[in-house]
Amino acid sequence: MYQSIITEVDDGIGILTLNRPDRHNAVDKTLVAEMTAGLLELEADPRVRVVILSSTGKSFCGGVDPAWLRQAINESSAECLESNRQLARLLQTLSELSKPTIARVQGSAYGVGTGLIAACDIALATYDASFALNETKLGILPAIAAPYLIAAIGERHCRYFMLTAERFSGTEAYRIGLVHEMVPGEEQLD
């Protein structure tokens, strides 16, 4: 049914898994649309009591797919605005889901991937997870994810990481409030 995600329901738990491991689960137009639809599908399912946001491969989410950014260069301003609105709708849907959401983070979570985590109610990560708001290296401010990041880690931390694009560890993510619990490895996330 979906190209870039897998959805399943297991004993009251709805699981939405990012499934683009070859692209480090980087976000593109298809993934945004499918995640939004998948979240709404899980929300409407009466069997689901909680939704887990997970991923396959080495990375939780590598941020925005560079191929999508290259496509955006040739889009009209109206098309770019619509793409940004769809991304904003995804984060809003995740943040406002009527069921609790849990981010299950392993590997790297960069750019909008960090925003996805911030939009969840609870975040669990492995000790070796790494995070960055690295869009600034491309001359892009992570403005769409900013409200969720500010709510999760506070304005000063958010400003610092947005301006520096500095990579930070799972321990630092825990210290500043992006992550609620840390575990040694991916098996313990389950």
Characterization of the model:
The longest helix is centred in the middle third of the chain and has 20 residues, at 77-96. The chain has helices at residues 29-44, 66-73, 77-96, 112-119, 146-153, 155-164, 170-176, 186-189, and strands at 5-10, 13-18, 50-55, 101-105, 108-110, 122-126, 130-132, 168-169, 181-183. It contains eight helices and nine strands. The chain is of the alpha/beta class and 190 residues long. The radius of gyration is 15 Å and the shape is globular.
Query: How much strand content do the residues show?
Result: 15-25%
- Terminal Cα separation, in Å? 25 Å
Annotation field: number of helices:
8
Major sheet description: 6 strands, mixed
β-strand number: 9
